[in-house]
Amino acid sequence: MLTYIRWSARSLVPVFIRCKVLQRPEQSSTYFDIIGVAPTYNVSLSELTSRYRKLQSSLHPDRFSNSSEEEKRISEDYSALVNAAYSTLLHPMKRGLYMLQLRGVSLEEGDIQTSPLLLIEVMERNEELAEARDEVSVKRIAVNNKQRLDQLAREAAEAFQAEDIPMAQQILIKMKYYNSLDEKIRDIKREKGIMED
Mind listing the GO molecular function terms for this protein (predicted)? Predict the structure, then answer.
């Protein structure tokens, strides 16, 4: 019977359970469990990255070259799961959406009423970006948008801390719009050859 990897509190290295053989994660494991960090919105990014790197090192295919085919498959599957967990938990919006999902809440289009004021604000930012002619203008918009995303991340952390899930939903809706704008900014920077700061 296969079990899962658990973390040693002292070493920050995954401990392989039962006969030092790689085991499948439990079905009920969350991304927080997989990486071995506290299930909070305010996850420590340095701890997250450190644990991710240690896990990836432990799961590297070279470590399993002399193992059974099943253990090789488990290693590959686990590595993919660790990558998905890290990618999700690293990004504030994805982390928040995942935390909502763990609570049985989603942000499907049409399920949530979006504030007309938010739509107007985002439309104005998009127009401002479309009209930006030079590097200084694009960078100014990028800085303002990053500040807005950082503020929304702080608000999301407070909402999750207070277990105010409806508020967290509203904040993450805003975050989705500003994150979309951030992607457009990055595209324009690439098109115009503007270096990231």
Answer: ATPase activator activity; protein-folding chaperone binding
How confident is the prediction along the chain (197 residues), in pLDDT tens digits per residue? Answer: 333 445 443 333 343 434 566 667 777 789 999 999 999 999 999 999 999 999 888 887 777 778 888 888 888 888 889 999 999 999 999 999 999 999 998 877 655 677 888 889 989 998 998 888 888 999 999 999 999 999 999 999 999 999 999 999 999 999 999 999 999 999 988 888 877 76
Specify which residues 14 forms β-bridges with: 7
The number of distinct structural domains making up the chain is: 2
Q: Do 122 and 186 lie in a common domain?
A: yes
Rounded CA-CA distance 5/21 in Å is 10
Residue ranges with strand state E in the chain: 5-7, 14-16
Q: Does one domain contain both 130 and 73? A: no
Put simply, whether the predicted model's pTM sits higher than 0.85 gets the answer no
